[in-house]
Amino acid sequence: MISSSEYGSHSWELVVTVDHQHEEVPKEFLLRVTGDLHIGGLMLKLVEQIEISQDWSDYAFWWEQKKCWLLKTHWTLDKCGVQADAKLFFTTQHKMLRLRLPNMKTVRLKVSFSSMVFRAVSDICKILNIRRSEELSLLKQPEDTLKKKKKKDKNSKETVTEDILNLCNSPVSSGLSGSPGLYSKTMTPIYDPVSGTPASSTITWFSDSPLTEQNCSILAFSHPNCSPETLAEMYQPRTLADKAKLNAGWLDSSRSLMEQGILEDDQLLLRFKYYTFFDLNPKYDAVRINQIYEQARWAILLEEIDCTEEEMLIFAALQAYHVSKLSLSSEAQDFTCESEVDEVEAALSNLEVTLEGGNSSNILEDITDIPKLADNLRLVRPRKLSLKTIKPYWFVFKDTSVSYFKNKESALGEPIEKLNLKGCEVVPDVNVAAKKFGIKLLIPVADGMNEVYLRCDEENQYARWMAACVLASKGKTMADSSYQPEVHKILSFLKMKNWTMSPQAVSDPESIDMKPECFVSPRYTKKYKSKQLVARILEAHQNVSQMTLVEAKLRFIQAWQSLPEFGLSYYIVRFKGIKKDDVLGVSYNRLIRIDIATGDPITTWRFSNMKQWNVNWEIRQVAIEFDQNVSIAFTCRSADCKIIHEYIGGYIFLSTRSKDQNETLDEDLFHKLTGGQE
């Protein structure tokens, strides 16, 4: 019997469900509590009543109705708002999660379900030895792709299960964060803290990490391609609306997995969300480079990003003979081969500068005058009701604008027209085989975009003018340190495209053991016979055959970055005052409004011109203010507006990174820029 004095006037009964594996012990417990009891005291009271001797340190209270964790153990029940009708679940904070990586491999590991997704991804990347975790996030698989898979053979589940890489003994399994030393914070070789032996100079792992050398090989190297049948079964977006669906499932980085309805052993996609790959270094980023390469490869194969036939063959050549064959060779899998490392460093010394955006210490030093370009080019203006006109003019490129004159002699006078390229869209219009070197400029005007084409005569001229246009669109001049690397990048991409038929290389395509359907998108397998594709891939391969494995992957990434649609994430939105839906493309430096029917860009807004952005959470509307009194507002139709809000804030956060900093991120700044005021 309990005396009435023990009840007290303010005490009440609280039902708590405990997540444990002991069948002889009940799951539900009734506790008598008061409102001034703190969460830590409630845990102690519960554990004493359970009477099971085990480690409860990873356990916390999950409030089912409110969908939130009660992690502040010093808060009282009254402060948390917990009353008698609350359903509390005492469960582990770290649970098993299946993650599908960009290389389509599935890993199973313990992840914190109570930490914010931003922190959880950071811990995951430390286990997988991927630096710069801020570039990645977790994505729910689009429903359309899941529906398509359900129609396929049910037996496929067995093969998927066998392919899962179990990393159950990860450092976070015990509730600890990932080991801080999985990669070096300084660019010097590091040593194993347990045995004291030097770690490999291309990739490092610790003896207490589940990422063994064998597992690391799975993540750091490409493996044989999937069959053409498997590729045909995978979801391929056909329209901009389909592409928008792919980006609808990004998780909120400021909330935990449990708060977003993710359950134990669910499957999520780990993907590079932000397309700004900072500080890529082959010596430390074997896994990271391979996963970026794989994400690019699948985006091209599944036609998530458009490319020309010429470009598709280059991508196929880099995949088919180089990455696939070198990955299978034993030499490529020798992590400790120092001579190979030295070769990679030498081969990529120039390429690293290109990928990182230039090195101001040795490029265009001590410039006092802004350079200018002057040359004969042809101007093409499309006409709606007639054929387009092509006329030669004398063009002068200075600062961020291009002017054209009737001829060189009249260049001292007033130009026929001056085009300001700041904020414009620059699209390559190139066919190397046909000797076509064009630059498509979409210049913002009051009622949309003004379309202009510039035609160059040869590769070097095109590279110089294209690089100048790209920089001008970002508000930079040719005096910027990234100009020469941009020219070099364009020329190297053109060189890969510029192949000639070699009878010796393609004399007998049938003798080559290759399935070309694995290396090009289904559109091209329908257009050409297998024998024709093999021959054309072999032609393209001649220009990439001397590359090392890492260089081939970096060249592939570089070529992917050169595509006009690179880095664009699409969402269906409705702008304020407009009665029809449009597509909004979000990139690392701009927003693009695109016509949903034609796919043509309508307007571009640069982040560099943005003054502020905010969200009206009641009507779920994003409002952005730019310079010169330009403001836009829109609601998102294909996803939650929080996703776009986080994208904008995330890209601005990433633009603040510097090589002078160590790799510790300002997590508070990230949440301040992306979290919103919900």
From TrEMBL:
Keyword set, alphabetical order: Cell adhesion, Cell junction, Cell projection
An example molecular function term from Gene Ontology annotations: integrin binding
InterPro entries, per database record: Band_41_domain (IPR019749), FERM_2 (IPR035963), FERM_central (IPR019748), FERM_CS (IPR019747), Kindlin/fermitin (IPR037843), Kindlin_2_N (IPR040790), PH-like_dom_sf (IPR011993), PH_domain (IPR001849)
A GO-annotated cellular component: focal adhesion
Keyword Oxidoreductase: no
CDD domains: FERM_B-lobe, FERM_C_fermitin, FERM_F0_KIND1, PH_fermitin
Top-level taxon in the UniProt lineage: Eukaryota
Domain PH intervals: 378-474
PANTHER family (UniProt xref): FERMITIN 2-RELATED, FERMITIN FAMILY HOMOLOG 1
Protein family: Belongs to the kindlin family.
UniProt name for this protein: FERM1 protein
Organism: Brachypteracias leptosomus (short-legged ground-roller)
